[in-house]
Amino acid sequence: MIQVYPASSRFEYDKGWLKGGHSFSFAEYYDPENVKFGPMRVCNDDVIAPGKGFGAHPHSDMEIISIILSGRLRHEDSLGNVAVTGFGGVQRMSAGTGVIHTEHNPSEHENVHILQLWFEPAERGKQPSYATGEFDTAALDGALLPVASGQGLEGVTDMGQDMTIYLSRLEAGQQIDFKQAVGRRVFLFVIEGELAVSGAGENVTLGRRDTARITEAPELALTASSPVFYMLVDLP
């Protein structure tokens, strides 16, 4: 089944310093029918103004992935980690038994645009940890490039859940076939452009900021209707 969530269905927010949309229940937005998809709990599409950000706040028992789309994001936490990451970088925080952190835009002039994703961990109560990773942005072209994974992929930022986050850029007409084990899920998020998705006898087209939650379709054909940049998450 391919369930489409158009961009217009997201909870949109504009706090002045922070703008974007929530794909799942988060903060002041709560919909009991839209709390999670498998272990996926959050997909926030955030644009943070120059010099602004999130003050010190705690997390526990959550795998938190920040993918920077433009600008730079600074992270600092109670474990002593400090990192500044731009496009081509991923930040991963495994909150475990508890960690306090801040996130902000260190630029005086440029917004930072991030996708922040939260997932329930495969194992609760572990020691908290933090890591950054980098990927070759040119390798996104014509491919599904893994950028974070709990499946032991070499050279890919690790995380504490049996899943993989992929990014991909396709030119109009290009197609990628994606296969996974029966019983797993796929979450799709179109960052820019338009993507045609076929699987299990269904055909849908996703536009900019549309998402899809896919079950019982272990083989998917992903075709760019126009130049497209998108994220695919392979979930248990």
From TrEMBL:
The lineage of its organism: Bacteria, Bacillati, Bacillota, Bacilli, Bacillales. This is Quercetin 2,3-dioxygenase. Pfam families: Pirin (PF02678), Pirin_C_2 (PF17954). Residues 147-235 form the Quercetin 2,3-dioxygenase C-terminal cupin domain. Residues 15-118 form the Pirin N-terminal domain. Belongs to the pirin family. PANTHER family: QUERCETIN 2,3-DIOXYGENASE. InterPro entries: Pirin, Pirin_N_dom, Quercetinase_C, RmlC-like_jellyroll, RmlC_Cupin_sf.
